[in-house]
Automatic annotation (TrEMBL):
Name of the protein in its database record: Glutaredoxin domain-containing protein
Source organism: Citrus sinensis (Sweet orange)
């Protein structure tokens, strides 16, 4: 009997530890859009987010030549490389020199918060072709109501004319933690 209780305690402890950081499901704002930045996932730590304590949102993504126009141009460029003399690799480098992150938060469908961040404050710039992480840490107010929130993030290029990506995801703020608990 003691062995069963011990095993149960270990399993419950592992469940609590595993849920301290969580990858959440990400959806694109427009599933038909052809974004230059592809998002792989969002890790939130701690999870659920604790009121009055720092939370970190880490978004893993990739930048490259994904758009239909860019891919078409590359295929044409490489198929005519010998004749054109153009350096096709130049067109595959989709480095991001800067930009903005625009974040909107909703609670039960009601828009409650907006903020804008410089992309280079959240990741190293320039962002070279390939994988990168955008990480933002923030302390949520102690009076933040517990529950499920929806976050929408748009990433713009340096001119703020092109949307590089747009994602939405849900996250939870726990019931127990608050500034008073500190």
């Amino acid at each position: 009997m003691a062995t069963i209780k011990f095993k149960l305690a270990i399993v419950l402890s592992l469940c609590l530890i595993v849920d301290l950081a969580r990858a959440t499901d990400v959806k694109y704002c427009d599933k038909n859009a052809d974004y230059d930045v592809k998002v792989h996932g969002v890790d939130i730590s701690p999870y659920p987010v604790a009121r009055g304590r720092e939370a970190t949102f880490s978004i893993s993504a990739t930048t490259a030549c994904f758009s239909k126009y860019c891919l078409f141009f590359l295929s044409t460029c490489y198929s005519n490389f010998d004749a054109s003399g153009v350096d096709c690799a130049f067109y595959t480098d989709k480095a991001i020199s800067g930009g903005k992150l625009v974040i909107d938060v909703s609670y039960f469908g009601w828009h409650i918060h907006s903020e804008t961040h410089d992309l280079c404050d959240e990741t190293s710039c320039p962002v070279s072709t390939g994988d990168f992480v955008v990480a933002h840490s923030q302390v949520l107010p102690g009076f933040t109501p517990p529950g499920t929130y929806s976050l929408k993030m748009k990433m713009y290029d340096a001119t703020k004319k092109q949307v590089l990506t747009c994602i939405t995801f849900d996250f939870s703020i726990g019931f127990a933690s608050s500034v008073a608990d500190s």
